[in-house]
Amino acid sequence: MSNKLNGILMAHGFGSGQAGESLYLELYNAIKKAIIKKKLEYNTRLPPTRLLSQDLGVSRSTVVKAYDILCLENYITSVQGSGYFVNDFQQKKIKYSLKTYDKPTEYPSVSEKARRFRKHLNLMNRMHQPGLAFRPGLPPLDIFPVGQWQQLTNNYWKGVKYSDLSYKSSLGLDSLRKSIVNYLKIYRNIQCHYEQVVIVTGSLHSLSILGELLIDPGDEVIVENPTYANAIAIFRSLKSRMTALEIDEQGLDISDARKKVKNPKLIYTTPSNQYPSGVQMSLQRRLELLEYANARNCLIIEDDYDHEFSNWDNPITSIFGLDKNERVIYQGTFNKLLHPSIRLGYIIVPSYLIEDIKALYEQSLRFVSPEVQKVMSDFIERNYFSRHLRSVLQISRERREFFTTAFDKLFGGVLKILPVSGGLHLIVQLPETIDDVLFSDYLADNGIITFPYSKYFSREPKKNGLIMGFSSVSTPVIKQKLELMYQLYTAYPAVVKAE
Ligand SMILES: Cc1ncc(COP(=O)(O)O)c(C=O)c1O
Q1: pLDDT attached to residue 93
Q2: Which of 150, 211, 252, 387 is most buried by a 10 A CB count?
Q3: What CATH number is given to the structural domain containing 251?
Q4: For the chain, how many structural domains are there in total?
């Protein structure tokens, strides 16, 4: 049998050293083919593994593996005490095959909403480009008090109760909601009840909840031009009708809406530090906005994403603080102040919306990690937060000063920084002959991260420039990267426009 079997196996490919195949697969394939072609007939007894391995000059485990797969696929059966026998192939006992199937050429399509988000992917991908210099919107990451945070996290786990590990309310831990109320009272002159506070993972999360909460297809939404591109992506995904109003030196001018918008449902604004133009909305315009919202029965989302940076020296009362008619939803974030990977923010909502928000939130993200919430609340209560805040503001101011001085010295007026009120980013104006998207890509390829200004305008006229952060890296790195940027700029062709 052995010699005969050897011959059969050789004839069916064993020993051919077929490209890349392991020996046990070669053996398995040869036996399988021989069974299918009836060269090994029904009930044939195969040699024991040790014998076959000696005959073929292979290890016993090679034979064992091959037999195992053949058993699994029902080509052969192992009979205890008797050995391995070929099954009846004609009786279609064979259940499996290792055949690989061709990939389907068609897949089910994704939803229209997903397709709308997809259009923004290129812009969003910039957020994840590696490197810190000069990514806009980052605080000084190198001074985050890792030790204090770690100590509070350890405390949390030392004192944790089993009930802490269970499901929690989507609105957030009461301790953090109360800490935020105290913080806003002291630092933002905002009065609210802790039951109006909803804990979220950040401003973007809050915008996505509020969009779902308030917008039906066709609803009219007023946005600023330029504005936060992620907000546009959310409102567009909900099929709202958006009207983008211009910004002047006093911020959003709502009088324009009187002619352009019939029945507004929502106004999205960034009054402390208009994103990304950097204009601070005047008190007069805030009052006009409230009057308009009251008269038209609509809501305002006040995105106060970096008021700590833009409002410090010249605080103007928030629109939420001026509102007497529950027209304003206020959103704040710790992602800018501490670091974006903390994913923690909050919304202050008129009380009549709370139950609807809760219902919607419960059905999606459920709730933010109670561990992070509790540590944040302790961080605030122990005054670590206010101390860190002061350092963050001081270092950011120093780095901003250093950046602008070094930039002006290097570029000597060839490129100019536009005046902005504060915050964590600056805008560098580019000549009209240079496409800001292409130039930003070119810088990114060389390790410098910027965002193209034109991408934040939802309609013409679009401005051409680079949005740049200055705060996340130390001054020697700022100097080194600005020098590199200057070299890259001088080597760049004077006219580069997109097709
Ligand atoms: C206008 C605006 N709001 C909010 C945020 C912060 O978003 P998040 O809290 O989700 O990180 C940003 C970040 O770039 C922003 O530009």
Answers
A1: 53
A2: 252
A3: 3.40.640.10
A4: 3
Q: For ligand 1, say whether the CB of 275 is within 6 Å of any of its atoms.
A: yes
**What count of other Cβ atoms lies within 10 Å of the Cβ of residue 95?**
9
- What ligand 1 atom has the least distance to the C-alpha of 270? 1
Grouping H, G, I as helix, E, B as strand and the rest as coil, residue 327 is coil
193 burial level (CB within 10 Å; 0-12, 13-18, 19+): exposed
The pLDDT-based confidence of 19 (bands split at 50, 70, 90) is very low
| Distance in Å, CA 297 to ligand 1 centroid | 27
Q: Report the C-alpha gap between 222 and 209 in whole angstroms.
A: 17
User: Is the minimum distance from the CB of 308 to ligand 1 under 6 angstroms?
Assistant: no
Residue 182 to residue 190: CA distance in whole angstroms: 9
Q: 419 and 381 in one domain? A: no
pLDDT at residue number 499: 53
Cα separation, 134 vs 151, in Å, equals: 31
Please tell me whether residues 296 and 415 are part of one structural domain: no
The two beta strands, 83-86 and 45-46, are antiparallel
Residues 137-143 have a mean pLDDT of: 94
Selection from 126, 470, 468, 472 nearest residue 276 by Cα? 468
Q: Are residues 48 and 159 in the same domain?
A: no
Task: Kindly state the average pLDDT of the residues 414-423.
Answer: 85
Tabulate helix, strand, coil % of the chain (nearest 5): 45, 15, 40
Ligand 1 pocket mutation pick from 199, 201, 203, 272 by most atoms within 8 angstroms of CB: 203
Q: CATH number for the domain including 35?
A: 1.10.10.10
Q: How far is the CA of 412 from the centre of ligand 1 (A)?
A: 32
Q: Are residues 325 and 400 part of one domain?
A: no
Q: Is residue 496 part of a domain?
A: no
Q: Are strands 220-225 and 264-269 parallel, antiparallel or unpaired?
A: parallel
CATH number at residue 404: 3.90.1150.10
End-to-end CA separation in angstroms for the chain? 74
For residue 305, how far is its CA from the centre of ligand 1 (angstroms)?
6
Lowest mean pLDDT among 433-437, 452-456, 492-496: 492-496
Instruction: Please give the residue range of the domain that contains residue 7.
Output: 2-91
Task: Write down the mean pLDDT value for the chain.
Answer: 90
